[in-house]
Design a protein that fits this description.
Layout: H1 16-24, H2 35-40, E1 48-53, E2 56-63, E3 66-70, H3 78-87, E4 90-94, H4 96-104, E5 108-111, E6 117-121, H5 122-127, H6 134-146, E7 149-153, H7 159-173, H8 179-187, H9 189-192, E8 195-201, E9 204-214, E10 219-227, H10 234-245, E11 252-254, H11 262-269, E12 275-277, E13 280-283
Parallel strand pairs: 3-4, 10-11
Antiparallel strand pairs: 1-2, 2-3, 4-13, 5-13, 6-11, 6-12, 7-8, 8-9, 9-10
Helix pairs in contact: 6-10, 7-8
Length: 288
């Protein structure tokens, strides 16, 4: 049950029935706007939700103590937007179309480059043709030639193996990162209708990837991709292999944002995105 505004509730699995179909039909392809993403990161961002009217929902949260709100669907009337901008620091994950409308209303709009989603052609990630993918292709070939491997769809019977990969990844990384959300994603993959692949090297679980359909069915978003260390070319192989595993109906693969991390940005740019799913921050004044 989602309460009517001004009351809010946290995210609960029971709400998926009402929210998931609406989010699934969004065409903008913003990776945060899936029920799975909102649910899995509900504690990390302190997400809460309220119903403004039929099929119009308000989501609020906080990052590092800074409060924000999000409107995945339509925009409410300006008087209500003024109220929200007075109560919260900014509006987050604003689509291109909403950014234009909000700018016309006189609000301050700025690109949120650290949260742009990286968009790739699935076919390019499968074939890795041409000079621009030469290094990646060599890494994949090096992995294939060096190791004995097996790739499988991430079915329920392999979830424990994927969890073992995640635990090894956390241990090697030395911090939690998105471990909590990734762990719950595996535990509730069936309920959230997430799908992915798992990879074994020399008979041992070594990597997995997990995601879902996005952008009205045109793209597939990778929410989690984890691998253990020690296998040269493993990440490149997983990237190529899973793209090949996906049905042809997915023209694009969304690999989410870089969060301003320079190493992650370079890695994502090295795969030559065809573009970005742009997102904006909006405020009542030029605080950004």
């Amino acid at each position: 049950m989602i309460p009517d505004y001004p009351k809010f509730s946290g995210f609960h699995m029971e709400q998926r029935r009402d929210i998931h179909p609406l989010l699934k039909n969004l065409q903008n392809g913003i990776s945060e706007f899936t029920f799975a993403n909102l649910y899995l990161f509900r504690e990390a961002h302190n997400y809460r939700i309220s119903k403004l009217r039929d099929n119009l929902f308000l989501i609020v949260g906080s990052d590092n103590g800074s409060q924000f709100f999000m409107l995945p669907f339509d925009l409410p009337e300006k008087y209500f937007l003024d109220k929200l901008f007075h109560e919260f620091v900014s509006m987050k994950c604003v689509s291109v179309s909403h950014a234009s409308a909000l700018a016309d209303m006189g609000y301050f709009v700025a690109e949120d480059r650290n949260n742009f989603d990286y968009l790739y052609l699935r076919e390019e990630l499968v074939k890795l043709h041409g000079a621009k993918f030469h290094t990646k292709k060599n890494m994949v070939n090096a992995f294939i030639n060096r190791y004995s491997y097996e790739a499988k769809p991430l079915l329920i019977e392999y979830i424990n193996d994927a969890a073992a990969v995640l635990d090894m990844w956390k241990q090697e990384k030395g911090d939690y990162g998105d471990y909590v959300a990734a762990k719950e994603a595996l535990e509730k993959a069936e309920e959230l209708q997430l799908c992915g692949g798992i990879y074994y090297v020399d008979g041992k679980p070594a990597a997995y990837t997990l995601g879902e359909e996005l952008g009205g069915g045109k793209s597939f978003v990778i929410h989690f991709e984890k691998a253990v260390g020690g296998y040269k070319g493993l990440y490149q192989f997983v990237n190529q292999s899973f793209a090949a595993m996906l049905p042809d109906k997915y023209k694009f693969i969304n690999r989410e944002q870089d969060l301003g991390d320079e190493g992650m940005r370079q890695a994502k740019m090295n795969y030559k995105p065809i573009g970005f799913v742009k997102k904006y921050r909006v405020a009542a004044s030029a605080y950004i």
